[in-house]
Amino acid sequence: MDQSNYTSLHGFILLGFSDHPKLEMVLSGVVTIFYLITLMGNTAIIVASLLDSHLHTPMYFFLRNLSFLDLCFTTSSIPQMLVNSWGPDKTISYVGCVIQLYVNMCLGSTECLLLAVMSYDRFTALCKPLHYLVIMNPHLCLKMVIMVWGISLACSVVLCKLTLNLPRCRINLLDHFLCELPAMVKIACIDTRTVEMSVFALGVVFVLTPLLLILTSYGFFAHAVLRMKSKAGQRKAINTCGSHLTVVTILYGCVIVVYLQPGNSASKDQGKFFTLFYTIIIPSLNPLIYTLRNKDMKDALKKLVKVAYASAKMKRK
Questions:
Q1: Could you give phi then psi for residue 167, rounded to 5 degrees?
Q2: φ, ψ for residue 243 (rounded to 5)?
Q3: Fewer CB atoms near the end CB (10 Å): N or C, the chain?
Q4: Are 139 and 162 in contact (CB under 8 A)?
Q5: SS3 breakdown of the chain: % helix, strand, coil, rounded to 5?
Q6: How are beta strands 12-14 and 91-92 bridged, if at all?
Q7: pTM to 2 decimal places
Q8: Contact (Cβ atoms closer than 8 angstroms) between residue 289 and residue 247
């Protein structure tokens, strides 16, 4: 039986944190809590920003897309991880692994680019407030989102195809809790420098370039804030953009460690923890950061809770 038929029949075994059984149980509980926060928080942001007409602005249009991304990103991997953690069966089918690989690559790349687009939106709102709604018109916002999704999809197709075509010599043990590209490359039984260089090159495009653009925009942002005469205006600008910068710092830092280290020099457990961080922790932090530090979103969520409460009360009657 050739290697491709073997993996198609038997799929892969996701070892996860099985070499640390007690840690695995603790992590599964923590991940479950954060996953529920992610589901509730991001769903609330999407619903509240759609129902409140005051939030039909470019900023919240991009925030809805980010919340949708986070929902899809976590759901594509976390349920499988929890199932594997709670039972002795650590397997995932070949088709399931391929789908997970493609979805994670596409959504991860999209989020990196979308955060850069969001930083441009905030830069325009702060530095060109009089022309903001003209520049960031609905057609441009839609085009930017479509472009981000299209580029990310093309990237994921190229990298995943290269990775899946690598011969694995009947090795189907993945030392990870999901089918992630670095883990798939590690079990290849040939020289993988070509794939690693491709990953690094596209990583520069999808990680370092957006990060550079974001940091540049925040340089202009800092200059504009320092020129503000209103202290209240300064605080509002810092709260709005500071939350975005927090997410950016954590996300890009984790991705750089996992994908852009030479030869993926991160230790196996270090790589898993960083992956766990940007797979579940960051998507759960996004709703908290963008709601607890945002008055408009807090007001919209309060209205949503009141409507839900009134609806439930009417049903009881």
A1: -70, 135
A2: -65, -40
A3: C
A4: no
A5: 80, 0, 15
A6: antiparallel
A7: 0.84
A8: yes
- The token pair that represents 221 in the structure block: 């942002």
The total of other beta-carbon atoms located within 10 Å of residue 216's CB is 12
- Residue 106 to residue 177: CA distance in whole angstroms: 18
List the one residue out of 99, 92, 96 whose CA is nearest residue 14: 92
Strands across the sheet with 91-92, in order?
Answer: 91-92, 12-14, 173-174
CB 219 within 8 A of CB 199: no
Tell me the pLDDT tens digit for each residue of 128-177. Answer: 888 888 999 999 999 999 999 999 999 889 889 888 888 887 778 888 88
pLDDT of 256 above 90: no
Residue whose C-alpha is closest to residue 248's, from 279, 217, 214, 275: 214
For tokens 């991705």, the residue is: 255
For residue 174, list its beta bridge partners: 14
Cβ-proximal residues to 185 (8 Å cutoff; 6+ apart), any chain: 163, 166, 192, 195, 196, 199, 264
* Residues 30, 282 contacting (CB under 8 angstroms): no
Tokens 């075509």 correspond to 165
pLDDT in tens, 46-103: 988 888 888 888 988 998 999 999 999 999 889 888 888 877 778 888 898 999 999 9
State both tokens at 135. 């520049």
- Identify the sign of the CA torsion 155, 36, 38, 308: positive
Cβ-based neighbours of 40, under 8 Å, separated by 6 or more: 287
What is the C-alpha to C-alpha distance for residues 200 and 150, in angstroms, rounded to an integer? 20
C-beta separation of 24 from 18 below 8 A: yes
**Nearest 5°: phi and psi at 174?**
-100, 120
